[in-house]
Amino acid sequence: MIKVAINGYGTIGKRVADAVRAQPDMEVLGVAKTRPNFEAETAIDKGFPLYAAIEEREDQFAAAGLDIAGPVAELVADADIVVDATPSGIGAENKSLYEEYDTPALYQGGEDAELVDTSFNARSNFEDAVDADHVRVVSCNTTGLSRVIAPLRETFGVEKVRATLVRRGGDPGQTSRGPINDVLPDPVTIPSHHGPDVETIFDDLDIDTLGMKVPATLMHMHSLNVTLEEAVDAAEVRDLFGDESRLFLIPERMSIDGSGKLKEYALDAGRPRGDIWENAVWEESISTVGRDLYLFQGIHQESDVVPENVDAIRAVTGSADAEESIRTTNEALGIGF
Amino acid sequence: MIKVAINGYGTIGKRVADAVRAQPDMEVLGVAKTRPNFEAETAIDKGFPLYAAIEEREDQFAAAGLDIAGPVAELVADADIVVDATPSGIGAENKSLYEEYDTPALYQGGEDAELVDTSFNARSNFEDAVDADHVRVVSCNTTGLSRVIAPLRETFGVEKVRATLVRRGGDPGQTSRGPINDVLPDPVTIPSHHGPDVETIFDDLDIDTLGMKVPATLMHMHSLNVTLEEAVDAAEVRDLFGDESRLFLIPERMSIDGSGKLKEYALDAGRPRGDIWENAVWEESISTVGRDLYLFQGIHQESDVVPENVDAIRAVTGSADAEESIRTTNEALGIGF
Amino acid sequence: MIKVAINGYGTIGKRVADAVRAQPDMEVLGVAKTRPNFEAETAIDKGFPLYAAIEEREDQFAAAGLDIAGPVAELVADADIVVDATPSGIGAENKSLYEEYDTPALYQGGEDAELVDTSFNARSNFEDAVDADHVRVVSCNTTGLSRVIAPLRETFGVEKVRATLVRRGGDPGQTSRGPINDVLPDPVTIPSHHGPDVETIFDDLDIDTLGMKVPATLMHMHSLNVTLEEAVDAAEVRDLFGDESRLFLIPERMSIDGSGKLKEYALDAGRPRGDIWENAVWEESISTVGRDLYLFQGIHQESDVVPENVDAIRAVTGSADAEESIRTTNEALGIGF
Amino acid sequence: MIKVAINGYGTIGKRVADAVRAQPDMEVLGVAKTRPNFEAETAIDKGFPLYAAIEEREDQFAAAGLDIAGPVAELVADADIVVDATPSGIGAENKSLYEEYDTPALYQGGEDAELVDTSFNARSNFEDAVDADHVRVVSCNTTGLSRVIAPLRETFGVEKVRATLVRRGGDPGQTSRGPINDVLPDPVTIPSHHGPDVETIFDDLDIDTLGMKVPATLMHMHSLNVTLEEAVDAAEVRDLFGDESRLFLIPERMSIDGSGKLKEYALDAGRPRGDIWENAVWEESISTVGRDLYLFQGIHQESDVVPENVDAIRAVTGSADAEESIRTTNEALGIGF
Ligand SMILES: NC(=O)c1ccc[n+]([C@@H]2O[C@H](COP(=O)([O-])OP(=O)(O)OC[C@H]3O[C@@H](n4cnc5c(N)ncnc54)[C@H](O)[C@@H]3O)[C@@H](O)[C@H]2O)c1
Ligand SMILES: NC(=O)c1ccc[n+]([C@@H]2O[C@H](COP(=O)([O-])OP(=O)(O)OC[C@H]3O[C@@H](n4cnc5c(N)ncnc54)[C@H](O)[C@@H]3O)[C@@H](O)[C@H]2O)c1
Ligand SMILES: NC(=O)c1ccc[n+]([C@@H]2O[C@H](COP(=O)([O-])OP(=O)(O)OC[C@H]3O[C@@H](n4cnc5c(N)ncnc54)[C@H](O)[C@@H]3O)[C@@H](O)[C@H]2O)c1
Ligand SMILES: NC(=O)c1ccc[n+]([C@@H]2O[C@H](COP(=O)([O-])OP(=O)(O)OC[C@H]3O[C@@H](n4cnc5c(N)ncnc54)[C@H](O)[C@@H]3O)[C@@H](O)[C@H]2O)c1
């Protein structure tokens, strides 16, 4: 059993913890948090040993009636690997701690690519992370883009990618984030930083991205254009994508018009937290005009990186190859509707 | 086993179906829908026999690859009771069908009180529905108000209730509903119809309600004022409410500031669909100024009436008394965080 | 003086009425509405003779204390031209009325291109409408796209246009429109109908468009990619656009991050209704990567077609050429910040 | 002419500047800002001398091509009165500056009541501010409540006020403020601080307030209950309010269902920035049940305090009594639809 520590038990961390626990070859050694709140209570209820990420705050947990298993350093010391899921920038601050205990670490997309040995997407570059010490699981948007680009490159060749990323303003619980009634070019400058981030996965890719922020919380929506190296029928692309385990092609007959009904479907289907680990590609939207492929995909920012973290654990610990890891992760989580 | 038919498999109907299936003394005989969509697929996936609510549309289901068990009349004929969860006003049209087959029926809050023998809230007037043929489970808002008013009346006496109901504009999947950026007095006239609806449960209650509609989808929010018959300490009210199984007092330590984090907590806790069957009362908000009691409560419109439907089934079929039914329902669903 | 009738006094019609009145060579003969509301009152307050679009409803206006000048047919008969600004599809129904009285007519973007002799954008194809009888001023989105495409075609040549149109769900007063918390691919099929609509202005243009709908009311936002026929510096494009009277380049120093601050700026500047008749292009966003040009532009759906209607009046009545008309319109309205 | 300095030229400050300029007995000596943005440009365009609120930042203005008239201290020294419209808490920091130059000052609702000699609402306690040195114009919500409470107290007597304030999450340009999809009890504790704030105007008033925050930007909405000292017909209240110059009773015939259409009406009517200086009370909503009065009112947070600031200038400078000041202000601004 791979002993996994989770440092940062928020939106991403709590999902990674549940996903790790569901794997046949892993166990959650403990999770670390900075302050008591409803998530800390759920950690305890689920039986995850809870560590204090900031030692001086241990008494805050005590005051809330929550037992602390110890300081985070202890957790890091005992783990085979640590998944850092702290807010952007904190992961970088934590790196020295992981180095101190010689514990390999995964970081999330909020950290800089320079921090790590390699960036990671299971479908695209699993091998790069094998035996690496510091690996960054790329952001939700980059993960979503990589999953469609990889098969297109392999099968048809990709000349250029142009993507408009219409991003949710905040996650459902982030009540202090806006905008309330606006559409923000974000960043205003073009191309946005998302393209270069995708290039950490495919270093020779030609990609330009544009970002926006809108008053919605459920999912990001990508408007994607890929100029392929050959003219292709839309049907061929649908078939290609139909074989990809982490792409869900929303069938027209389901009458799912956006992220609201999509999440409702996931909840009805019994998905934990209504999570949609797959890219949700509207099947009807997949279209080609000559060599130009277009599509819409919804990216569930809170969960699409979760199976990627699980796979990255196997890559870093050298415990399975890409195919085996992806298959195990998918089965354990129940990926595929 | 009580054989239950569900006519109308949408927001309410699909939840009632799952809740009925979870009961030790009930089974879902089948569910009826008017058209194929993602919900119809989930019904099939869950193994609920699917009936065509409109016979002429059977082929639409066939075209979508969904097997139809038969026409809804057959389902009604075979059932011990039918739960009608069709859109407002359709229930009234369906009544003659239920009468034709002598099948007692439950209706939802979108129907008029005049349609039925009695309106129903398990905590408040379970006995009124015993052996009745046509019973209306009151709306989400009325259910939410009844659950707090009942214990207050019994313990302290209620002189007057004044409530402002800040209602979500639409459910998460209802993408055609607004407003997008507005606060609507709705209805503009005061008092709103909600007060009289509560009086179908407590006929001698003095209550004035005001309604608004806002651009939010997760929950309704009630700003409640109850003038009690005696001055009471807030602590006494908290204790009283603490004993009510369908009131969840949100503890301050959880740092839950609104319906977003509340739903997240429910999802983290593993609630199906993140449902919050209980009134969610902010514990800190419970305050008294002389005889005036104030509080905020979140009402999860999609699910608070679900346990009430289950109890109403037992009342109508005479299979348990209030206390036993509520206890059984609560245990089967896992009510209480 | 050109005598102008306005049929349909809503979002577009009331703005066209004010704009026509501001012209030195035009007068508003009257405006027609179907029912009394706040807009009817303002029409009266502004001294626009008010006609009943539906004769049987005249008494509704009387009941509201609003004097009706006569039936709409009278207004059409006496006018030199009628601007139809009724809801989508109603314009087509009204066409026979205008033909009956031999009054040339303008229609709005909600009508089909087949209804008319030509579609119209002042910057791009003014001449096509000269002396035509039935002319359609293209939609807000098509107007916005045409204004940037025209100069690019003339100066650099355009190989292909790809645009993602992130559309506001409803206008600020349209409280029944959603979505509340969603991003909807709309239409789900790609390319959307917007591209062909732009081709009614530039018939040989290669353009693919993708549409979305978001919970915002203020403006549409375009994420635009134009593959030019030659590689061009962004600075050249900025210069080119700087010379276009109906493109407003938002300077970086203004710290305008979206449509909220943009509208606030327009309101501060004293614009009537805060209208932004120009395309609002974020200057910083104008970028080139080889032959690919990218930019973000905000399109104020309620007002960008207003100066176009004014110009179309001059085209149809043959009273000025493009340059003179555009200059007169711009001066009369105060276009250009 | 009263020489008025405006320190803080944002949402409130820029409106006060325009309003002061519109008065026959006042002039704007200058306005001070901390950083250049679109508002600074408009100040220059309008011909308001622009002062640097923070001396070290003068060169930022220069870099943006904006001429600075001098440091704010100079402006304060030369003025008869300064209106401080800086963000909450900054006013308190500025007090010593105003004292240093012996310039009387007005502060806004974001400051504490303790900072000043008296809090101010023109309709309710104009006299208290006569010749005072430091006066706080109460917040938008308190202003809105005071304007309805004052006439009710005088005419019928008020036993108790209970109000639920459903507050907009942010102003239209405040894109970083949320929530996006939530209804937040805010503050969670009851009664909220708004009641005590109203008591700075009516010290013997019995009032309990509850606050919420919703994803809307246009206006606050109050759900108001006033228990009067006698039973009154709703018609009497409507008549009473009809005589109040700063209450606008929205007539039913206008079909205005919320703040979106209300703002549209104000914009159509030519109001600068679409401002609604009056409380907007839905006439139909005014209802009585025994001694209980209920109503809904929309409060335009950005502008209702503007005429109050103008009146407070006259009170502090002793240049007119309440009746004369209010009349002059109303006429100069065009208050009353
Ligand atoms: N939320 C998303 O949509 C999303 C998607 C993909 C990637 N990411 C990335 O994942 C990372 C985590 O984001 P999140 O959304 O889960 O954040 P979050 O705020 O929901 O959770 C962060 C958690 O870390 C804890 N924390 C804060 N400081 C800490 C410290 N010093 N040590 C240990 N724990 C600490 C917090 O208490 C919280 O529990 C970021 O890099 C983010 O960019 C987020
Ligand atoms: N959604 C809520 O928040 C909520 C809360 C409490 C009560 N209610 C009440 O519950 C009832 C159902 O509301 P809902 O939100 O579940 O609606 P819904 O639209 O989500 O579901 C209604 C279902 O009924 C089906 N249907 C439509 N016509 C039918 C017919 N003639 N025969 C059979 N099925 C038909 C539809 O296909 C759909 O599956 C209404 O009375 C409503 O007022 C709704
Ligand atoms: N609102 C926008 O964003 C926008 C932008 C560009 C173009 N358009 C197009 O402009 C047209 C008008 O749209 P709008 O937004 O102004 O609509 P609107 O609903 O705001 O106004 C339409 C007006 O027409 C009146 N009307 C309805 N039926 C009528 C009839 N039979 N005869 C006369 N008047 C009638 C209504 O009372 C209303 O005053 C549509 O074709 C629309 O597609 C709208
Ligand atoms: N916006 C509202 O809805 C509203 C309503 C009523 C009362 N108020 C109150 O009015 C006051 C101002 O609020 P606002 O919404 O206008 O804020 P704002 O942020 O829109 O404007 C504040 C202005 O003050 C400037 N400023 C910041 N620091 C300064 C300093 N040290 N010296 C001089 N200027 C400085 C800023 O540049 C800005 O121009 C606050 O007390 C607020 O509580 C606001």
UniProtKB/TrEMBL annotation, chains A, B, C, D:
- Name the residues that bind D-glyceraldehyde 3-phosphate: S139, C140, N141, H194, G195
Supply the InterPro entries for this chain: GlycerAld/Erythrose_P_DH, GlycerAld_3-P_DH_AS, GlycerAld_3-P_DH_cat, GlycerAld_3-P_DH_NAD(P)-bd, Glyceraldehyde-3-P_DH_2_arc, NAD(P)-bd_dom_sf
**Where would I find the Glyceraldehyde 3-phosphate dehydrogenase NAD(P) binding domain in this sequence?**
2-140
Source organism, top-level taxon? Archaea
Sorted UniProt keywords: Cytoplasm, Glycolysis, NAD, NADP, Oxidoreductase
Q: Name one GO molecular function term.
A: glyceraldehyde-3-phosphate dehydrogenase (NAD+) (phosphorylating) activity
**Residues forming the catalytic site:** C140
Which GO BP terms apply?
Answer: glycolytic process
Q: SMART domains, from UniProt?
A: Gp_dh_N
**Is Acetylation one of the keywords UniProt gives this record?**
no
The organism's taxonomic lineage, starting at the top = Archaea, Methanobacteriati, Methanobacteriota, Stenosarchaea group, Halobacteria
Where on this chain does NAD(+) bind?
T11, I12, G110, R168, Q301
Q: What is this protein called?
A: Glyceraldehyde-3-phosphate dehydrogenase
Q: Which PROSITE patterns match?
A: GAPDH
From the UniProt record, give the pathway where this protein acts: Carbohydrate degradation; glycolysis; pyruvate from D-glyceraldehyde 3-phosphate: step 1/5
Asked if the Swiss-Prot or TrEMBL record annotates the protein with the keyword Oxidoreductase, the reply is yes
Any single Gene Ontology cellular-component annotation: cytoplasm
A Pfam family hit: Gp_dh_C
Family, similarity comment: Belongs to the glyceraldehyde-3-phosphate dehydrogenase family.
Q: What's its catalytic activity?
A: D-glyceraldehyde 3-phosphate + phosphate + NAD(+) = (2R)-3-phospho-glyceroyl phosphate + NADH + H(+); D-glyceraldehyde 3-phosphate + phosphate + NADP(+) = (2R)-3-phospho-glyceroyl phosphate + NADPH + H(+)
